[in-house]
Amino acid sequence: CANTLFQAYSSGSTLPYAGLIVMGSYVDETGNHDVTHYPKPVLTLNTELDGGLARPGKTAVWWRQHRALSLAKGEEHALV
Predict the structure, then answer these.
(1) For residues 24 and 6, what is the distance between their CA atoms, to the nearest angstrom?
(2) SS3 content of the chain, % helix, strand, coil (to 5)
(3) Please, are residues 50 and 77 in contact by the beta-carbon 8 Å criterion?
(4) Tens of pLDDT along 9-60?
(5) What is the CB-side half-sphere exposure of residue 5 using CA atoms within 13 A?
(6) How far apart are CA 40 and CA 62, in angstroms?
(7) What is the phi/psi pair of residue 75, to 5°?
(8) At 4, which helix (H) or strand (E)?
């Protein structure tokens, strides 16, 4: 998945990508690569590809992380 690829090519201070767009996938639920701690902007497009693992009900955990981030650091930070 794109999240794993992003993590594999991002070592230390080197981040070769400007951001991450995942469609039918998602970032880690917890840890250094969840929405709250992701080192670059993330856009998750909910789709029902390959069994529907990224349907809206599954991605609610990341929506809650986005809301917490926007409340803590402001909506502008959460959208960038």
Answers:
(1) 16
(2) 35, 10, 55
(3) no
(4) 776 667 778 888 887 778 888 888 888 888 888 888 776 666 666 667 777 8
(5) 10
(6) 15
(7) -60, -35
(8) helix 2-9
